[in-house]
Amino acid sequence: MRQNSIFRKVAATEPEPWVIADAVKVLKKGGLVVFPTTGLYGLGADALNPAAVERVYRAKQRASAKPILVLIAEIPELKKLCTEVTKTAAGLMGLFWPGRLTVVVKARPDLPGVLTGGTGKIGIRMSRHPVARSLVKAFGGPVTATSANLSGQKGCAAVAKLDPGITGAVDLVLDAGPLKGDIGSTVVDATTERPVVLREGAISKKRLAMAGFDVDI
Known about the structure:
Blueprint: E1 7-9, H1 17-28, E2 33-36, E3 41-44, H2 50-60, E4 70-71, H3 87-96, E5 101-106, H4 113-116, E6 121-125, H5 130-139, E7 143-144, E8 146-147, H6 164-167, E9 172-175, E10 186-189, E11 196-199, H7 205-210
Parallel strand pairs: 1-9, 2-9, 4-6, 5-10
Antiparallel strand pairs: 2-3, 3-8, 4-7, 5-6, 10-11
């Protein structure tokens, strides 16, 4: 288990710039950072660094066939990750970003295969949480945002409840206090005209339908 020096307090609403800067340094060196999102703590790495992404899989004991979603800070960053944004995808992003909706799009062919799980697709989200937004923006590129838990276990809403397997595998933990702790983001495949809900989470199928998207309820 790592020493307590990996744990760093961070203000949830106005994160200290020097704390974010330290986290960015870790990411740029290929390290792993646990950070808060709106509902649960996430496990962050440089999404374009294959070795760093592989560390995420090992830390979570996650099957390599399961792709990992990423966070971006600004819409223009989409070009680093996908070949096209369908009308459906653009509509979802326009209505629900920043927020708890992961939009699956067609991945750029030059993305690390370990990131996409060989699916040719990638899930992207823009977080509303100030710490997550600040971290991704300061890093200047996409950051992984899979939940900070061992594969198959429940997500973690408090740093004190992180599995030792996670804290022993990461380089820095940003502690913003207890989070909402409810279900994760809703994941929608928007690579086709008709969106497909792959996982119903914080944004319900009913809410998507009421917003005008043709989804099965």
